[in-house]
Design brief:
The complex is a heterodimer of chains A (320) and B (308). Chain A has 320 residues and is mostly helical. Chain A is 78% helix and 0% strand. Chain A starts with a helix and ends with a helix. In chain B, α3 crosses α13 (262-290). Chain B starts with 6 loop residues before the first helix and ends with a helix. Classes of the chains: A mainly alpha (320), B mainly alpha (308).
């Protein structure tokens, strides 16, 4: 039963967050200065198309009715129609979402794979050269602007050294197994840019929670039992230190998505973020609204999944 | 904030009119920390550059004769694809970038602190405050800022308002935990016996106690504001009539010169980096100076949440 209870609670929370995102968007669109019709349908559309779109949102009706209609449209999966491409926003963004998921996913994996060993090394040799280096890199890493890192990497490895492609997600005319290799090559620089920005905070958190864990009684007990220092560090202390560190990743998912928007813009990576950049240039409000809601839903679902998994891994969380 | 019995403080205390105030003790320790005083000097320097921009450099022209010149004696930071001097752009850009940082974080701090303190004092509001803050922090804020800025139309006022509107929950989160601790302390109960005015208790007793946490979050919020504003400008939502660091990067990207003319990216990036890094270091050093015991276990948590 506790598992079902945990999943149910997280599901309610996720739905509440989604409802909040939708309501905030609705209120912003209706209450901000400016014509709300402008945000729903383009003046460049034919008069009938425009009128039918506006009618489906019931802009002449009271705010409460409009809200109901808006929720109804969203529940049916209707995010509106792109102004510039005249096709449903879900189609425009649906094709882009996998690339964003690939980019953010790869960067999360890289962050964890690089972050845990660095944090462990820093914490186990506290005050050493490596520890100091990790702290310096950790603090500076949190201060950089994502496009700055992205352009730096692009310039160094793409333009000067010519090792990696400077933009896009794949080359045309590559098929089969080679296509996967090509996608991976295009992914390296964007994923690395996003990782470098994330890594600092993660390493510093692993380091500090691990230092806390190494001072706990159970660590002393494990040492007194004659376990090897390596076993105490990796099996006993690290396990307990990882939970707060990994919760941080959940908390930063929103920032990660923001970073992805900027990274994709630099590398012309065909994800939702690059779509946002193009929609800004063309003032395609329907796509902008859809992109926010889609990214919010992605973050909420990812958060829910990680919460449930932690709950299953760490019994303390589910009983709390 | 116990009295510190350094010899200097003891001398101060010997003079009846001048008891050692915690603030001056903090400043004395702060002054001795090179990782605090150097970044503080840098921040002051950047503020001076912004204030004195008209004296330092002519306003960026709309075009110039020498296009994409590498940094050299004529143009220290080089020129961009329209022949404009990048140094002038960076110097004048510092005005808008710092203005947005100061204005947006001031609004966010005021709103965020007010919500946190009132929420902590009035128990019935606290649940609501907590839920709203959690919800906002769970959302991807940059896409939301983009949507609003695009709808309202890019201008400096819009950017300040948008960044402030989505930054206060972070302040509330940081201040709230401290405010909750303070509200439960005996001296606040004692104050309730003295007055029936919650306003008096909040402004006289709760606010001063959370001030150190607020100071730290000013820095965090201001540097986030710089990065958010630069992000908006980089996507083309900056004020088209004013130079900002983000706009230099945006125009470099638009003109396609970003990957060949390295100086177009390097100098505005360095400006953003130096501003955010020195703000972060100042807040860490301030925290250490205020609370020397936490110094050795300098952790991320002590930077954001410590108030003991």
């Amino acid at each position: 039963m506790p598992v079902a209870w945990l999943v149910g609670r997280k599901l309610v929370r996720a739905l509440l967050t989604l409802w909040f995102a939708v309501t905030v968007t609705f209120l912003l669109l209706r209450l901000l200065p400016g014509d709300p019709a402008l945000a729903l349908a383009s003046p460049n559309m034919t008069a009938e198309t425009r009128a039918s779109i506006l009618a489906s949102y019931g802009l002449d009706k009271p705010l409460v009715v409009q809200y109901g209609l808006y929720l109804g449209q969203l529940v049916q999966g209707n995010l509106g129609t792109s102004f510039t491409q005249s096709i449903p926003v879900t189609q425009v963004l649906g094709a882009r979402l996998p690339w964003t998921l690939l980019l953010t996913g790869a960067s999360l994996v890289l962050t964890v794979v690089l972050g845990i060993p660095l944090g462990v090394l820093a914490a186990s040799r506290r005050g050493g050269v490596l520890d100091r280096l990790v702290q310096v890199v950790g603090v500076t890493g949190q201060s950089v602007f994502v496009p700055s890192v992205a352009v730096l990497l692009l310039f160094a490895f793409g333009v000067r050294l010519g090792w990696l492609p400077i933009g896009g997600a794949y080359d045309t005319g590559v098929y089969g197994v080679a296509w996967y290799g090509d996608v991976a090559r295009h992914l390296v620089l964007p994923a690395l840019s996003l990782t470098l920005v994330q890594l600092g905070a993660y390493v510093l958190t692993v380091r500090s929670t691990l230092i806390d864990a190494l001072g706990q009684d159970y660590t002393t007990l494990a040492q007194a039992n004659g376990l090897s220092p390596r076993r105490v560090l990796w099996k006993h202390a690290l396990r307990n230190a990882l939970l707060p560190a990994t919760t941080l990743i959940g908390l930063q998912l929103g920032f990660l998505v923001g970073g992805a928007v900027l990274t994709e813009t630099v590398f012309a990576y065909p994800g939702v973020g690059r779509g946002i950049y193009e929609a800004v240039t063309q003032l395609d409000y329907a796509v902008l609204q859809g992109a926010f809601l889609l990214l919010a839903a992605t973050v909420v679902v990812a958060n829910m999944v990680t919460d449930v998994v932690y709950g299953l891994l760490d019994p303390r969380v589910s009983t709390r | 904030m116990s009295a510190v019995t350094t010899p200097v403080a003891a001398l101060d205390a010997a003079v009846p009119q001048a008891p050692a105030r915690p603030a001056s003790a903090t400043w004395r320790r702060f002054r001795r920390e090179p990782l605090g005083i150097v970044p503080l000097a840098l921040l002051v320097g950047l503020a001076l550059v912004a204030l004195l921009a008209p004296l330092l450099s002519a306003a960026p022209a709309s075009y110039g004769p020498d296009v994409l010149v590498a940094p050299g004696s004529g143009h220290w930071f080089g020129t961009d694809s329209l022949g404009r001097d990048v140094l002038a752009e960076v110097v004048w850009g510092s005005r808008q970038s710092l203005l947005v940082a100061v204005a947006a974080s001031a609004i966010a701090i005021a709103v965020g602190t007010a919500v946190a303190v009132v929420g902590a004092y009035v128990k019935r509001l606290d649940t609501l405050v907590n839920v709203v803050v959690d919800l906002v922090l769970a959302l991807p804020v940059l896409p939301l800022m983009i949507l609003v800025a695009a709808l309202v139309g890019p201008s400096t006022t819009t950017i300040i308002a948008v960044v402030a509107a989505f930054s206060w929950p972070e302040v509330t989160r940081i201040v709230r935990s401290q405010a909750l601790t303070v509200v439960g302390l005996p001296y606040v109960d004692a104050a309730r016996l003295m007055t029936s005015s919650p306003w008096w208790i909040i402004t006289r007793h709760v606010l001063p106690a959370v001030t150190p946490v607020v100071v730290v979050s000013v820095v965090v919020t201001a540097s986030r504001a710089v990065l958010s504003a630069a992000g908006l400008a980089f996507l083309g939502l900056g004020d088209p009539n004013t130079w900002s660091w983000g706009r230099i990067l945006y125009e470099a990207q638009q003109s396609g010169a970003m990957s060949s003319a390295w100086w177009l990216t390097l100098f505005p990036s360095l400006a953003i980096f130096l501003l955010v890094l020195s703000a972060t270091l100042v807040s860490t050093a301030y925290n250490d100076a205020r609370n020397p015991r936490a110094r050795r276990s300098r952790t991320r948590r002590s930077t954001i949440g410590a108030g003991r």
